Amino acid sequence: MIKYNHQHNTTSSSTIREVVFGVEDGMVSTLGAITGIAIGSQDHFTVILAGTVIIAVESISMGIGSYLANRSEQDVNQRRLLEEKEEIQQYPKEEKEELKNLFVKDGWPNKIVQEMSRVASENKKLMLKEMAYRELSIAQDPSTGPLKKAIFMYASYIVGGMVPLFAYFILSVPRATPVSIVVTLAGLFALGVATTKYTKGSWFKAGGRILSLGTVALVVGYIVGGIAAKFS
Questions:
Q1: Is 225 helix (H, G, I), strand (E, B) or coil?
Q2: Which of the ends of the chain has fewer CB neighbours closer than 10 A, N or C?
Q3: What is the distance, to the nearest Å, from the Cα of residue 141 to the centroid of all Cα atoms in its chain?
Q4: What is d(CA 96, CA 213) in angstroms, rounded to the nearest whole number?
C-alpha cells in the first residue's frame, strides 16, 4: 500500500521569478559584454574592470527596477482592495449576489453556493478575501514584499554575473574566454533545468530555451568584439 505524502513547494512564484530573472540576466548580459570586450581589447585588466562595473551597476539597477515595479503593483492592488472593501460595506446585498455568481462561474454546484455566499458575507474579512481572489484576481503573499523581491533580484544578478567573469580572475584572456563561455552556457542550461523543479515541465526544453537566449547574447558580443578588434 502506497503511503500518501502531501507535499507542495511553498516558495512564492514571484520570488522564483526574481531569482531566475536575476541570475539569467546576470549571466547573459555579462557574458555578452565581457566576451566582446575580451575579443576587442585582449587586455586582462580591462575585461575584469568592465565586468566588475557592469555587475555592480546593473545589479543595483535591476534591484531598484524590481522594487519600483513590485511597489507600484502593490499600491495599485491596495487601492483596488480598498475600493472593493467600500463596496462591500455600502452594497452588501449586491456584493453577496456578485460573489454567488462568481462561485457559480467557477463551477461550484448551486446547492452549496447559497450557503458559501452567506457564510462569506457574514465575515467581512472573508468576503473581501474571496472577492479579491475571484473578482480582482489578487492573491496577496505578505511574505514577499517589494523590498524582499528587490534584494533577491540584486543578489541573483551578482551571482549570475560572476559566473562568466570568474575565469578571468584566474586565467589569461585567451584561455579565460572559452572557459567563461562554456561555464556560462552550462550554467544557463542548468538554471533552466532547475526551474522544472517548480514548473514540472521538460528539463530538456527548459534548459534549451534559456541556453538559446544566452547564445544570442554571446554571438552579438563576438561580432561586436571582432569588429572592434579590426579597428584597434
A1: helix
A2: N
A3: 15
A4: 48
